[in-house]
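Standup notes, protein team

Yesterday: finished cleaning the Anopheles melas set.
Today: Acyltransferase 3 domain-containing protein structure.
Blockers: none.

Input for Acyltransferase 3 domain-containing protein:
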Amino acid sequence: MPKIYEYDDYDRCVGQAPLALADDAVYCVSRTVIKPDQESSLWRLIETFSNDTKRHFRHDHLDRGFCIERCRQLVQSLDGQTADALYVDKFDIPFPYIINADAFNNVSGDRERYGRLINVCQNYALRQQYNLSGYTEIEYCTGPKRTVPMDGLDISFLIITALIALLVISSTWYDHYTSKQLGNEHYKKDLPCRKTMVLTSFSLVRNWYRLVSRSKDQLNEDLKFFQAIRFFTFCLVVVGHCGDLFTASSFANTQDREAEYYSPLGHVLINGSIIVQSFFEMSGFLLSIHFCTTQAKMKRISWIAILVTVGYRYIRLTPAYAFILLLHATWLPKLQDGPLWPRGAEVERNFCRRNWWTNLLYVNNYVHADEPCLQQAWYLACDYQLFTVGLIILVAVTKYKKYVVHIFSVSGVVAILIPALVVYFNHFDGVFVITLQAERFIYWFDEMYHKIYIPFHTNIGCYIGGVVYGYLYYRVRTSDNKGNRSGFLKFLWYMTVPCGILTLMLSMIFYSYNFEKPSLWIALFFPLHKNAWALFGAIVLYGIIYNYNRFIKSVVNFPLFVPLGRLTYCAYISHVFFLKNFFYGTRDIAYFSHVSMVS
Protein backbone atom coordinates (compact mmCIF):
# COMPACT_ATOMS: atom_id res chain seq x y z
CA MET A 1 0.00 0.00 0.00
CA PRO A 2 1.18 3.61 -0.50
CA LYS A 3 2.99 5.16 2.44
CA ILE A 4 0.68 7.31 4.56
CA TYR A 5 3.31 10.00 5.15
CA GLU A 6 5.70 11.01 2.39
CA TYR A 7 7.40 14.39 1.93
CA ASP A 8 9.83 15.90 -0.54
CA ASP A 9 13.07 17.22 0.94
CA TYR A 10 12.12 20.65 2.27
CA ASP A 11 15.61 22.17 2.54
CA ARG A 12 16.60 21.02 -0.92
CA CYS A 13 13.39 22.52 -2.27
CA VAL A 14 13.75 25.95 -0.66
CA GLY A 15 17.49 25.88 -1.38
CA GLN A 16 16.55 26.36 -5.05
CA ALA A 17 15.27 29.86 -4.24
CA PRO A 18 18.31 31.79 -5.58
CA LEU A 19 18.17 29.86 -8.86
CA ALA A 20 14.46 30.19 -9.50
CA LEU A 21 11.78 32.80 -9.42
CA ALA A 22 10.75 33.88 -5.91
CA ASP A 23 7.35 32.30 -6.48
CA ASP A 24 8.88 28.90 -7.20
CA ALA A 25 10.57 28.43 -3.80
CA VAL A 26 7.29 27.18 -2.38
CA TYR A 27 6.58 23.93 -0.56
CA CYS A 28 2.98 22.69 -0.24
CA VAL A 29 1.57 20.07 2.11
CA SER A 30 -1.50 18.29 0.80
CA ARG A 31 -3.95 15.51 1.60
CA THR A 32 -4.68 12.83 -0.99
CA VAL A 33 -7.74 10.58 -1.01
CA ILE A 34 -7.36 7.57 -3.31
CA LYS A 35 -10.18 7.16 -5.81
CA PRO A 36 -12.06 3.83 -5.48
CA ASP A 37 -11.23 1.38 -8.27
CA GLN A 38 -12.82 -2.04 -7.81
CA GLU A 39 -10.86 -3.44 -10.75
CA SER A 40 -7.63 -2.95 -8.81
CA SER A 41 -6.68 -5.75 -6.40
CA LEU A 42 -4.53 -3.26 -4.47
CA TRP A 43 -7.49 -0.91 -4.02
CA ARG A 44 -9.62 -3.79 -2.74
CA LEU A 45 -6.87 -4.60 -0.20
CA ILE A 46 -6.68 -0.94 0.88
CA GLU A 47 -10.46 -0.77 1.23
CA THR A 48 -10.71 -3.98 3.26
CA PHE A 49 -7.81 -3.05 5.53
CA SER A 50 -9.01 0.52 6.09
CA ASN A 51 -12.55 -0.58 6.92
CA ASP A 52 -11.25 -1.70 10.32
CA THR A 53 -11.37 1.94 11.40
CA LYS A 54 -10.79 1.21 15.09
CA ARG A 55 -7.41 -0.48 14.66
CA HIS A 56 -6.04 0.75 11.35
CA PHE A 57 -5.20 3.97 9.59
CA ARG A 58 -7.21 4.91 6.54
CA HIS A 59 -4.70 3.83 3.92
CA ASP A 60 -6.72 5.60 1.23
CA HIS A 61 -5.93 8.94 2.95
CA LEU A 62 -2.36 10.13 2.41
CA ASP A 63 -0.26 13.04 3.68
CA ARG A 64 2.09 14.46 1.07
CA GLY A 65 4.64 17.26 0.89
CA PHE A 66 5.45 18.66 -2.55
CA CYS A 67 8.22 20.91 -3.81
CA ILE A 68 6.44 23.13 -6.32
CA GLU A 69 9.52 23.49 -8.52
CA ARG A 70 9.94 19.70 -8.77
CA CYS A 71 6.27 19.25 -9.66
CA ARG A 72 6.43 22.06 -12.22
CA GLN A 73 9.38 20.45 -13.97
CA LEU A 74 7.62 17.07 -13.95
CA VAL A 75 4.34 18.39 -15.40
CA GLN A 76 6.20 20.41 -18.04
CA SER A 77 7.84 17.17 -19.20
CA LEU A 78 4.40 15.65 -19.87
CA ASP A 79 2.31 16.33 -22.94
CA GLY A 80 -1.01 18.13 -22.39
CA GLN A 81 -3.15 15.05 -23.01
CA THR A 82 -1.29 12.97 -20.43
CA ALA A 83 -1.48 15.76 -17.85
CA ASP A 84 -5.24 16.13 -18.41
CA ALA A 85 -5.71 12.38 -18.03
CA LEU A 86 -3.85 12.41 -14.72
CA TYR A 87 -5.97 15.17 -13.20
CA VAL A 88 -8.75 13.88 -10.89
CA ASP A 89 -11.71 16.06 -9.89
CA LYS A 90 -13.02 16.01 -6.35
CA PHE A 91 -15.42 13.14 -5.67
CA ASP A 92 -17.64 12.33 -2.69
CA ILE A 93 -15.37 11.78 0.35
CA PRO A 94 -17.33 10.34 3.32
CA PHE A 95 -14.87 11.34 6.08
CA PRO A 96 -13.02 14.50 7.25
CA TYR A 97 -9.79 14.53 5.27
CA ILE A 98 -8.30 18.03 5.60
CA ILE A 99 -7.96 20.91 8.09
CA ASN A 100 -10.23 23.83 7.16
CA ALA A 101 -8.59 26.46 4.96
CA ASP A 102 -9.36 29.32 7.37
CA ALA A 103 -7.02 27.76 9.92
CA PHE A 104 -4.08 28.80 7.71
CA ASN A 105 -3.05 31.98 5.90
CA ASN A 106 -3.70 32.55 2.15
CA VAL A 107 -4.69 28.96 1.34
CA SER A 108 -7.31 29.90 -1.28
CA GLY A 109 -4.70 31.71 -3.40
CA ASP A 110 -2.30 28.76 -3.18
CA ARG A 111 -5.00 26.30 -4.17
CA GLU A 112 -5.84 28.43 -7.19
CA ARG A 113 -2.19 28.76 -8.17
CA TYR A 114 -0.85 25.27 -7.46
CA GLY A 115 -3.89 23.00 -6.96
CA ARG A 116 -3.98 21.47 -10.44
CA LEU A 117 -0.19 21.16 -10.59
CA ILE A 118 -0.02 19.13 -7.36
CA ASN A 119 -3.01 17.00 -8.33
CA VAL A 120 -1.28 15.91 -11.56
CA CYS A 121 2.09 15.53 -9.81
CA GLN A 122 0.68 13.19 -7.16
CA ASN A 123 -1.34 11.13 -9.63
CA TYR A 124 1.76 10.65 -11.78
CA ALA A 125 3.48 9.05 -8.77
CA LEU A 126 0.42 6.96 -7.83
CA ARG A 127 0.03 5.69 -11.42
CA GLN A 128 3.71 4.87 -11.78
CA GLN A 129 4.03 2.98 -8.50
CA TYR A 130 0.55 1.58 -7.72
CA ASN A 131 -1.62 2.06 -10.82
CA LEU A 132 -4.03 4.10 -8.68
CA SER A 133 -5.22 7.71 -8.75
CA GLY A 134 -6.68 10.13 -6.22
CA TYR A 135 -7.94 13.57 -5.44
CA THR A 136 -5.27 15.83 -3.93
CA GLU A 137 -6.04 19.09 -2.13
CA ILE A 138 -3.57 21.60 -0.75
CA GLU A 139 -3.79 22.04 3.03
CA TYR A 140 -1.22 24.85 3.21
CA CYS A 141 1.93 26.13 1.50
CA THR A 142 5.10 27.45 3.08
CA GLY A 143 8.50 28.78 2.06
CA PRO A 144 11.45 30.91 3.15
CA LYS A 145 9.78 34.18 2.17
CA ARG A 146 6.45 33.39 3.82
CA THR A 147 7.08 34.86 7.23
CA VAL A 148 4.36 36.16 9.54
CA PRO A 149 4.73 39.96 9.89
CA MET A 150 5.08 41.42 13.38
CA ASP A 151 2.03 43.26 14.72
CA GLY A 152 0.89 45.04 17.86
CA LEU A 153 0.07 41.81 19.69
CA ASP A 154 3.58 40.49 19.10
CA ILE A 155 5.05 43.69 20.51
CA SER A 156 2.69 43.57 23.50
CA PHE A 157 4.04 40.11 24.42
CA LEU A 158 7.59 41.46 24.41
CA ILE A 159 6.54 44.43 26.56
CA ILE A 160 4.71 42.19 29.08
CA THR A 161 7.68 39.79 29.24
CA ALA A 162 10.08 42.71 29.78
CA LEU A 163 7.85 44.14 32.53
CA ILE A 164 7.71 40.78 34.31
CA ALA A 165 11.51 40.48 34.09
CA LEU A 166 11.90 44.03 35.42
CA LEU A 167 9.46 43.27 38.22
CA VAL A 168 11.41 40.15 39.22
CA ILE A 169 14.76 41.98 39.15
CA SER A 170 13.54 45.00 41.13
CA SER A 171 11.60 42.86 43.64
CA THR A 172 14.63 40.60 44.16
CA TRP A 173 16.88 43.65 44.68
CA TYR A 174 14.43 45.22 47.16
CA ASP A 175 14.15 41.94 49.07
CA HIS A 176 17.92 41.75 49.32
CA TYR A 177 18.09 45.44 50.33
CA THR A 178 15.72 44.80 53.30
CA SER A 179 17.46 41.62 54.46
CA LYS A 180 19.45 43.49 57.17
CA GLN A 181 22.24 40.93 57.54
CA LEU A 182 19.76 38.12 58.36
CA GLY A 183 21.05 35.93 55.54
CA ASN A 184 18.83 33.25 54.03
CA GLU A 185 16.49 33.22 57.04
CA HIS A 186 15.16 36.58 55.85
CA TYR A 187 13.75 34.99 52.68
CA LYS A 188 12.12 32.08 54.51
CA LYS A 189 9.88 34.18 56.76
CA ASP A 190 6.93 36.45 56.03
CA LEU A 191 7.75 40.09 56.62
CA PRO A 192 5.77 42.00 59.30
CA CYS A 193 4.88 44.88 56.98
CA ARG A 194 2.16 44.15 54.40
CA LYS A 195 3.56 46.78 52.01
CA THR A 196 7.01 45.15 52.10
CA MET A 197 5.49 41.71 51.48
CA VAL A 198 3.75 43.03 48.36
CA LEU A 199 6.95 44.65 47.09
CA THR A 200 8.92 41.43 47.61
CA SER A 201 6.26 39.13 46.19
CA PHE A 202 8.18 38.74 42.89
CA SER A 203 11.53 38.18 44.59
CA LEU A 204 13.32 35.30 42.89
CA VAL A 205 15.07 34.12 46.06
CA ARG A 206 11.96 34.36 48.27
CA ASN A 207 9.88 32.46 45.74
CA TRP A 208 12.54 29.77 45.46
CA TYR A 209 12.24 29.13 49.20
CA ARG A 210 8.45 29.12 48.89
CA LEU A 211 8.71 26.55 46.12
CA VAL A 212 10.91 24.12 48.07
CA SER A 213 9.56 24.80 51.55
CA ARG A 214 7.66 22.24 53.60
CA SER A 215 4.13 23.05 54.70
CA LYS A 216 3.70 24.35 58.24
CA ASP A 217 0.23 22.83 58.43
CA GLN A 218 0.13 19.23 59.75
CA LEU A 219 -2.70 18.18 57.42
CA ASN A 220 -0.84 19.37 54.33
CA GLU A 221 2.33 17.73 55.64
CA ASP A 222 0.44 14.42 55.97
CA LEU A 223 -0.74 14.74 52.36
CA LYS A 224 2.48 15.98 50.77
CA PHE A 225 2.78 12.67 48.89
CA PHE A 226 0.09 14.12 46.61
CA GLN A 227 2.88 16.14 44.98
CA ALA A 228 4.63 12.95 43.88
CA ILE A 229 1.40 11.42 42.52
CA ARG A 230 0.63 14.70 40.74
CA PHE A 231 4.12 14.74 39.19
CA PHE A 232 4.05 11.12 37.98
CA THR A 233 0.51 11.52 36.60
CA PHE A 234 1.62 14.63 34.71
CA CYS A 235 4.55 12.69 33.20
CA LEU A 236 2.15 9.99 31.95
CA VAL A 237 -0.09 12.67 30.42
CA VAL A 238 2.90 14.09 28.52
CA VAL A 239 3.81 10.63 27.21
CA GLY A 240 0.24 10.27 25.93
CA HIS A 241 0.40 13.65 24.19
CA CYS A 242 3.64 12.54 22.52
CA GLY A 243 1.80 9.56 21.07
CA ASP A 244 -0.90 11.86 19.69
CA LEU A 245 1.62 14.21 18.10
CA PHE A 246 3.58 11.40 16.43
CA THR A 247 0.42 10.61 14.46
CA ALA A 248 -0.64 14.23 13.93
CA SER A 249 2.76 15.15 12.47
CA SER A 250 4.31 12.17 10.63
CA PHE A 251 6.16 8.93 11.26
CA ALA A 252 7.44 6.12 9.07
CA ASN A 253 6.51 2.84 10.78
CA THR A 254 2.72 3.17 10.80
CA GLN A 255 2.36 -0.63 10.84
CA ASP A 256 3.90 -0.71 14.34
CA ARG A 257 1.20 1.59 15.70
CA GLU A 258 -1.47 -0.58 14.10
CA ALA A 259 0.10 -3.72 15.58
CA GLU A 260 -0.30 -2.25 19.09
CA TYR A 261 -4.08 -2.44 18.69
CA TYR A 262 -3.80 -6.25 18.55
CA SER A 263 -1.78 -6.44 21.77
CA PRO A 264 -3.39 -6.37 25.24
CA LEU A 265 -0.30 -4.56 26.59
CA GLY A 266 -0.56 -2.06 23.73
CA HIS A 267 -3.99 -1.07 25.03
CA VAL A 268 -2.44 0.07 28.31
CA LEU A 269 -0.86 2.88 26.26
CA ILE A 270 -3.72 3.37 23.81
CA ASN A 271 -6.34 3.78 26.55
CA GLY A 272 -4.01 5.55 28.95
CA SER A 273 -5.94 8.81 28.49
CA ILE A 274 -8.15 7.62 31.36
CA ILE A 275 -5.25 8.54 33.66
CA VAL A 276 -6.60 12.11 33.60
CA GLN A 277 -9.36 10.85 35.89
CA SER A 278 -6.68 10.61 38.59
CA PHE A 279 -6.19 14.37 38.29
CA PHE A 280 -9.92 14.92 38.71
CA GLU A 281 -10.07 12.68 41.77
CA MET A 282 -7.08 14.39 43.41
CA SER A 283 -8.60 17.80 42.66
CA GLY A 284 -11.92 16.80 44.25
CA PHE A 285 -10.18 15.28 47.27
CA LEU A 286 -8.08 18.40 47.95
CA LEU A 287 -11.06 20.71 47.41
CA SER A 288 -12.97 18.75 50.05
CA ILE A 289 -10.03 18.82 52.51
CA HIS A 290 -9.42 22.56 52.13
CA PHE A 291 -13.13 23.33 52.30
CA CYS A 292 -13.58 21.34 55.53
CA THR A 293 -10.47 22.93 57.03
CA THR A 294 -11.73 26.43 56.23
CA GLN A 295 -15.26 25.64 57.35
CA ALA A 296 -13.97 24.47 60.76
CA LYS A 297 -12.49 27.93 61.35
CA MET A 298 -15.71 29.77 60.41
CA LYS A 299 -19.03 29.95 62.22
CA ARG A 300 -21.12 29.48 59.09
CA ILE A 301 -20.74 29.08 55.34
CA SER A 302 -23.02 30.98 52.98
CA TRP A 303 -23.77 30.46 49.31
CA ILE A 304 -21.84 33.68 48.60
CA ALA A 305 -18.69 31.76 49.54
CA ILE A 306 -19.01 29.87 46.25
CA LEU A 307 -18.71 33.06 44.19
CA VAL A 308 -15.79 34.32 46.28
CA THR A 309 -13.91 31.01 46.08
CA VAL A 310 -14.53 30.55 42.35
CA GLY A 311 -13.37 34.13 41.76
CA TYR A 312 -10.24 33.57 43.83
CA ARG A 313 -9.45 30.42 41.84
CA TYR A 314 -9.84 32.38 38.60
CA ILE A 315 -7.36 35.01 39.78
CA ARG A 316 -4.91 32.32 40.91
CA LEU A 317 -4.96 30.24 37.71
CA THR A 318 -5.44 32.73 34.89
CA PRO A 319 -2.30 34.98 34.76
CA ALA A 320 0.17 32.17 33.90
CA TYR A 321 -2.42 30.61 31.59
CA ALA A 322 -3.02 33.91 29.76
CA PHE A 323 0.74 34.45 29.36
CA ILE A 324 1.22 31.07 27.62
CA LEU A 325 -1.88 31.73 25.50
CA LEU A 326 -0.38 35.04 24.37
CA LEU A 327 2.91 33.29 23.55
CA HIS A 328 1.08 30.82 21.28
CA ALA A 329 -0.89 33.64 19.65
CA THR A 330 2.22 35.68 18.85
CA TRP A 331 5.76 34.29 18.77
CA LEU A 332 5.26 30.53 18.38
CA PRO A 333 5.05 30.62 14.52
CA LYS A 334 8.18 32.80 14.31
CA LEU A 335 10.45 30.36 16.12
CA GLN A 336 10.94 27.76 13.35
CA ASP A 337 10.03 26.79 9.82
CA GLY A 338 9.75 23.55 7.92
CA PRO A 339 7.24 21.38 6.07
CA LEU A 340 5.09 20.66 9.15
CA TRP A 341 5.59 23.87 11.11
CA PRO A 342 2.48 25.75 9.81
CA ARG A 343 0.28 22.82 10.87
CA GLY A 344 1.63 23.00 14.41
CA ALA A 345 2.20 26.74 14.86
CA GLU A 346 0.28 28.79 12.30
CA VAL A 347 -2.97 26.96 13.09
CA GLU A 348 -2.36 27.48 16.81
CA ARG A 349 -1.72 31.21 16.30
CA ASN A 350 -4.91 31.69 14.28
CA PHE A 351 -7.09 29.65 16.64
CA CYS A 352 -5.70 31.48 19.69
CA ARG A 353 -6.36 34.87 18.13
CA ARG A 354 -9.86 33.80 17.19
CA ASN A 355 -10.95 31.84 20.27
CA TRP A 356 -8.81 33.17 23.15
CA TRP A 357 -11.92 34.32 25.03
CA THR A 358 -13.23 30.74 25.34
CA ASN A 359 -10.02 29.84 27.20
CA LEU A 360 -10.13 32.81 29.56
CA LEU A 361 -13.79 32.12 30.35
CA TYR A 362 -12.98 28.43 30.89
CA VAL A 363 -15.61 27.24 28.40
CA ASN A 364 -13.21 25.99 25.69
CA ASN A 365 -14.29 22.38 26.29
CA TYR A 366 -17.76 23.32 24.97
CA VAL A 367 -17.31 26.38 22.71
CA HIS A 368 -15.16 26.11 19.56
CA ALA A 369 -13.63 22.87 20.83
CA ASP A 370 -12.99 21.90 17.18
CA GLU A 371 -10.76 25.00 16.81
CA PRO A 372 -8.78 24.74 20.04
CA CYS A 373 -6.19 27.15 21.37
CA LEU A 374 -3.92 25.24 23.78
CA GLN A 375 -5.87 22.05 23.22
CA GLN A 376 -4.63 20.53 26.48
CA ALA A 377 -6.48 23.36 28.27
CA TRP A 378 -9.79 21.50 27.86
CA TYR A 379 -8.77 19.93 31.17
CA LEU A 380 -8.45 23.35 32.86
CA ALA A 381 -11.95 24.32 31.74
CA CYS A 382 -13.37 20.96 32.80
CA ASP A 383 -11.63 21.09 36.18
CA TYR A 384 -12.81 24.67 36.75
CA GLN A 385 -16.40 23.67 36.06
CA LEU A 386 -16.10 20.58 38.26
CA PHE A 387 -14.56 22.72 41.01
CA THR A 388 -17.68 24.93 40.95
CA VAL A 389 -20.03 21.93 41.09
CA GLY A 390 -17.96 20.32 43.87
CA LEU A 391 -18.10 23.54 45.86
CA ILE A 392 -21.90 23.71 45.51
CA ILE A 393 -22.18 20.13 46.79
CA LEU A 394 -19.90 20.82 49.77
CA VAL A 395 -21.81 23.97 50.76
CA ALA A 396 -25.04 21.97 50.48
CA VAL A 397 -23.81 19.15 52.76
CA THR A 398 -22.53 21.76 55.25
CA LYS A 399 -25.83 23.64 55.37
CA TYR A 400 -28.04 20.53 55.33
CA LYS A 401 -26.10 18.08 57.47
CA LYS A 402 -29.06 15.74 57.91
CA TYR A 403 -29.03 15.05 54.17
CA VAL A 404 -25.31 14.41 53.63
CA VAL A 405 -25.83 10.80 52.53
CA HIS A 406 -28.75 11.80 50.28
CA ILE A 407 -26.81 14.63 48.58
CA PHE A 408 -23.72 12.48 47.95
CA SER A 409 -25.87 9.55 46.77
CA VAL A 410 -27.84 11.65 44.30
CA SER A 411 -24.57 13.19 43.02
CA GLY A 412 -23.13 9.70 42.47
CA VAL A 413 -26.22 8.47 40.61
CA VAL A 414 -26.21 11.57 38.39
CA ALA A 415 -22.48 11.08 37.71
CA ILE A 416 -23.23 7.60 36.35
CA LEU A 417 -26.53 8.39 34.65
CA ILE A 418 -25.41 11.37 32.52
CA PRO A 419 -22.53 9.66 30.64
CA ALA A 420 -24.63 6.50 30.33
CA LEU A 421 -27.38 8.46 28.55
CA VAL A 422 -24.83 10.22 26.30
CA VAL A 423 -23.33 6.86 25.32
CA TYR A 424 -26.74 5.24 24.75
CA PHE A 425 -28.33 7.95 22.59
CA ASN A 426 -25.19 8.60 20.52
CA HIS A 427 -24.59 4.87 19.87
CA PHE A 428 -21.08 5.08 21.35
CA ASP A 429 -18.85 2.22 22.49
CA GLY A 430 -18.24 1.34 26.14
CA VAL A 431 -14.88 3.15 26.25
CA PHE A 432 -13.46 6.27 24.63
CA VAL A 433 -12.24 4.69 21.38
CA ILE A 434 -8.97 6.28 20.27
CA THR A 435 -8.60 5.68 16.54
CA LEU A 436 -5.48 6.40 14.54
CA GLN A 437 -7.51 8.38 12.03
CA ALA A 438 -8.87 10.65 14.78
CA GLU A 439 -5.32 11.13 16.10
CA ARG A 440 -4.22 12.49 12.71
CA PHE A 441 -6.36 15.56 13.40
CA ILE A 442 -5.81 15.45 17.19
CA TYR A 443 -9.52 14.53 17.61
CA TRP A 444 -10.84 17.82 16.12
CA PHE A 445 -13.34 15.86 14.01
CA ASP A 446 -13.99 13.06 16.49
CA GLU A 447 -17.59 13.03 17.76
CA MET A 448 -16.85 10.94 20.85
CA TYR A 449 -14.02 13.30 21.88
CA HIS A 450 -16.38 16.29 21.81
CA LYS A 451 -19.40 14.61 23.39
CA ILE A 452 -17.90 12.26 25.97
CA TYR A 453 -14.19 12.97 26.61
CA ILE A 454 -13.92 16.73 27.25
CA PRO A 455 -17.31 17.90 28.66
CA PHE A 456 -17.44 18.29 32.44
CA HIS A 457 -20.83 16.56 32.72
CA THR A 458 -19.31 13.27 31.50
CA ASN A 459 -16.25 13.57 33.79
CA ILE A 460 -18.06 14.30 37.04
CA GLY A 461 -17.84 10.78 38.51
CA CYS A 462 -14.20 10.66 39.65
CA TYR A 463 -14.34 14.26 40.83
CA ILE A 464 -17.37 13.53 43.01
CA GLY A 465 -15.60 10.40 44.23
CA GLY A 466 -12.65 12.56 45.30
CA VAL A 467 -14.93 15.04 47.05
CA VAL A 468 -16.69 12.27 49.01
CA TYR A 469 -13.43 10.57 49.95
CA GLY A 470 -11.87 13.87 51.07
CA TYR A 471 -14.96 14.64 53.16
CA LEU A 472 -14.84 11.21 54.85
CA TYR A 473 -11.08 11.37 55.40
CA TYR A 474 -11.32 14.75 57.11
CA ARG A 475 -14.06 13.45 59.40
CA VAL A 476 -12.18 10.32 60.53
CA ARG A 477 -8.55 11.53 60.58
CA THR A 478 -8.81 13.01 64.09
CA SER A 479 -10.30 9.84 65.61
CA ASP A 480 -8.47 7.14 63.63
CA ASN A 481 -4.70 7.56 63.30
CA LYS A 482 -3.85 4.00 62.27
CA GLY A 483 -6.66 3.21 59.84
CA ASN A 484 -7.93 -0.24 58.91
CA ARG A 485 -4.90 -2.48 58.51
CA SER A 486 -6.72 -5.75 57.78
CA GLY A 487 -4.99 -8.26 55.53
CA PHE A 488 -7.84 -8.14 53.01
CA LEU A 489 -7.57 -4.35 52.60
CA LYS A 490 -3.79 -4.59 52.25
CA PHE A 491 -4.29 -7.26 49.57
CA LEU A 492 -6.69 -4.94 47.72
CA TRP A 493 -4.14 -2.15 47.95
CA TYR A 494 -1.38 -4.25 46.38
CA MET A 495 -3.78 -5.43 43.67
CA THR A 496 -4.88 -1.93 42.65
CA VAL A 497 -2.15 -1.37 40.04
CA PRO A 498 -2.58 -4.81 38.37
CA CYS A 499 -6.37 -4.27 38.37
CA GLY A 500 -5.90 -0.84 36.81
CA ILE A 501 -3.75 -2.35 34.04
CA LEU A 502 -6.34 -5.11 33.46
CA THR A 503 -9.05 -2.44 33.27
CA LEU A 504 -7.12 -0.73 30.47
CA MET A 505 -6.60 -4.06 28.69
CA LEU A 506 -10.32 -4.80 28.98
CA SER A 507 -10.98 -1.87 26.63
CA MET A 508 -9.58 -4.04 23.83
CA ILE A 509 -12.92 -5.82 23.38
CA PHE A 510 -14.48 -2.65 21.97
CA TYR A 511 -11.70 -2.38 19.37
CA SER A 512 -11.92 -6.06 18.40
CA TYR A 513 -15.71 -6.33 18.15
CA ASN A 514 -18.49 -4.13 16.84
CA PHE A 515 -21.29 -4.68 19.33
CA GLU A 516 -24.83 -3.77 18.42
CA LYS A 517 -25.67 -0.25 19.60
CA PRO A 518 -27.46 1.37 21.30
CA SER A 519 -27.08 -1.11 24.11
CA LEU A 520 -28.02 -0.79 27.78
CA TRP A 521 -25.04 -2.83 29.01
CA ILE A 522 -22.59 -0.70 26.98
CA ALA A 523 -24.22 2.49 28.27
CA LEU A 524 -23.72 1.31 31.87
CA PHE A 525 -20.29 -0.17 31.22
CA PHE A 526 -18.87 3.21 30.16
CA PRO A 527 -19.39 5.15 33.42
CA LEU A 528 -18.64 2.12 35.62
CA HIS A 529 -15.38 1.42 33.77
CA LYS A 530 -14.38 5.08 33.83
CA ASN A 531 -15.32 5.66 37.46
CA ALA A 532 -13.51 2.50 38.59
CA TRP A 533 -10.52 4.83 38.72
CA ALA A 534 -12.18 6.67 41.61
CA LEU A 535 -12.31 3.39 43.56
CA PHE A 536 -8.73 2.46 42.62
CA GLY A 537 -7.56 5.96 43.55
CA ALA A 538 -9.32 5.87 46.92
CA ILE A 539 -7.69 2.52 47.79
CA VAL A 540 -4.23 3.78 46.73
CA LEU A 541 -4.60 6.99 48.75
CA TYR A 542 -5.87 5.11 51.81
CA GLY A 543 -2.91 2.73 51.75
CA ILE A 544 -0.36 5.53 51.40
CA ILE A 545 -1.99 7.70 54.08
CA TYR A 546 -2.00 4.81 56.56
CA ASN A 547 1.48 3.61 55.62
CA TYR A 548 0.72 0.16 54.17
CA ASN A 549 4.20 0.05 52.67
CA ARG A 550 6.95 2.09 54.30
CA PHE A 551 9.25 2.01 51.28
CA ILE A 552 6.58 3.37 48.91
CA LYS A 553 5.59 5.98 51.49
CA SER A 554 9.21 7.12 51.79
CA VAL A 555 9.56 7.34 47.99
CA VAL A 556 6.42 9.45 47.45
CA ASN A 557 7.37 11.64 50.42
CA PHE A 558 10.84 12.33 49.00
CA PRO A 559 11.40 16.12 49.32
CA LEU A 560 12.27 16.57 45.61
CA PHE A 561 8.67 15.83 44.64
CA VAL A 562 7.34 18.84 46.58
CA PRO A 563 8.65 21.49 44.15
CA LEU A 564 8.08 19.19 41.15
CA GLY A 565 4.44 18.67 42.17
CA ARG A 566 3.95 22.41 42.71
CA LEU A 567 5.28 23.10 39.22
CA THR A 568 2.92 20.72 37.41
CA TYR A 569 0.27 23.38 36.71
CA CYS A 570 2.68 25.65 34.84
CA ALA A 571 4.35 22.63 33.26
CA TYR A 572 0.95 21.40 32.05
CA ILE A 573 -0.05 24.66 30.37
CA SER A 574 3.37 25.08 28.74
CA HIS A 575 4.46 21.55 27.80
CA VAL A 576 2.68 21.53 24.42
CA PHE A 577 4.79 24.56 23.42
CA PHE A 578 7.87 22.35 23.68
CA LEU A 579 6.18 19.33 22.06
CA LYS A 580 5.12 21.43 19.07
CA ASN A 581 8.68 22.65 18.61
CA PHE A 582 9.95 19.07 18.76
CA PHE A 583 7.36 17.32 16.56
CA TYR A 584 6.38 19.99 14.04
CA GLY A 585 9.83 21.58 13.77
CA THR A 586 11.37 18.43 12.34
CA ARG A 587 12.53 18.13 8.73
CA ASP A 588 12.50 14.33 8.64
CA ILE A 589 9.77 11.76 9.07
CA ALA A 590 10.13 10.36 12.59
CA TYR A 591 10.28 6.73 13.69
CA PHE A 592 7.76 5.77 16.36
CA SER A 593 8.92 3.83 19.41
CA HIS A 594 8.11 3.74 23.12
CA VAL A 595 11.64 4.87 23.96
CA SER A 596 11.29 7.97 21.76
CA MET A 597 7.94 8.75 23.39
CA VAL A 598 9.38 8.56 26.91
CA SER A 599 12.49 10.54 25.99
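Follow-up from PR in the comments: The mean pLDDT is 92.
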